[in-house]
Amino acid sequence: MTMPWRPSSSPLKIFPGDPLLLEFKASLLRDIRQVEQAAECLRDAFRIQRVSRDVPGAVRTLIITAQVLDQAGQPQEAAGLCLTALDLLDSSIDPTRNLLRVVIQNYAGFLCHAGKALAALQALRTAEPLLAGGDPFFQLRLEWLFGNIAARLDDESAELRLENVRQKLAEGGLFHEATLATLDLARYYVRRQDPRAAPAALSIAPLLESLGINRDAREAELLAQLAMADADVESLISELYTAIMARPMARRVA
Fold first, then answer.
1. Dist. CA 200–CA 236, nearest whole Å
2. pLDDT at residue 32, rounded to an integer
3. I need a labelling partner for 17 at 20 to 30 A (CA). Which of 141, 151, 186, 254 fits?
4. What whole-number distance in Å separates Cα of residue 68 and Cα of residue 34?
5. How far, in Å, CA of 181 to CA of 190, rounded?
6. 8-state DSSP, 8
7. What pTM value is reported for the model?
8. Which of 214, 119, 107 is nearest to 99 (CA)?
9. How confident is the model over 60-108, as pLDDT tens digits?
10. How far apart are the first and last CA of the chain?
């Protein structure tokens, strides 16, 4: 009798000596919301890269680990990892400054998430000469970050910045990023008690269709609740943002 095939071990049991496989495992763990286990995999990858003197790989792993910590609600710790990454970089390792730009941008973003928008703005201003020369997508993400910082500081320029960013992202076919930028705008309206908050959030419906998110998905349910007159706009927008951010398509180092 032919026996059914069964894996000999857990599908997440991956050879521990390959940093790329550990990063892959960490990505899988993030997808199933096992954030602490994902961070542990990345720490193992970082240790291996340091021993093998793979500095660019170690910096990349630090960036991904910081993003995991930020996702777990630890943006201050995430910012600290970016400072560690900066200590590892020099012109011989990163001659094009691509890694440096990404680390600085992430550092400022984590500070903003930690409620330190003014410190984030100061970091970007201080590093302005180092941030020049990034590709168009990097510059757009930087513009997006400036919009979010302005929103946190209750600066009226946030509305125009975020509106421009979400439009450019959508025009470039970056529908997932455009969805998040739209919700950033909606959250800015919430903070200002602006009645446009709910309509702005509801405007992501076509973007969700472009992303292939089913009508019975949690995001669609939240939108339906948001359309109700007595909806708790602030909490629904926050939950909607978290749900979309957690989707695998949000995973980028830059």
1. 13
2. 75
3. 254
4. 10
5. 14
6. S
7. 0.85
8. 107
9. 999 999 998 998 889 999 999 999 999 999 888 899 999 999 999 999 9
10. 52
Burial 188-221 (b: 16+ CB within 10 A, else e): bbbeeeeeebbebbebbeebbeebebeeeeebee
Please answer whether residues 234 and 121 qualify as being in contact, where contact means their C-beta atoms are separated by less than 8 angstroms: no
Task: Please name the residue that has the structure tokens 């089913």.
Answer: 214
Helix axes 117-126, 98-113, angle to 10 degrees: 160
Contact (Cβ atoms closer than 8 angstroms) between residue 133 and residue 97: yes
**For helices 136-152 and 157-171, angle between their N-to-C axes, nearest 10 degrees:** 150
Contact 187, 175 (CB under 8 A): no
**For the chain, where are the alpha helices, taking DSSP H only?**
19-31, 35-51, 55-71, 75-88, 98-113, 117-126, 128-131, 136-152, 157-171, 175-191, 197-202, 205-210, 218-226, 233-245
CA angle 183, 194, 233 (to 5 degrees): 55
CA-wise closest residue to 171 among 163, 189, 139: 163
Distance CA 222, CA 8 (A): 40
Tell me the pLDDT tens digit for each residue of 164-218.
999 999 999 999 999 999 999 999 999 999 999 999 999 999 999 998 888 889 9
* Tokens 């909806």 belong to residue: 231
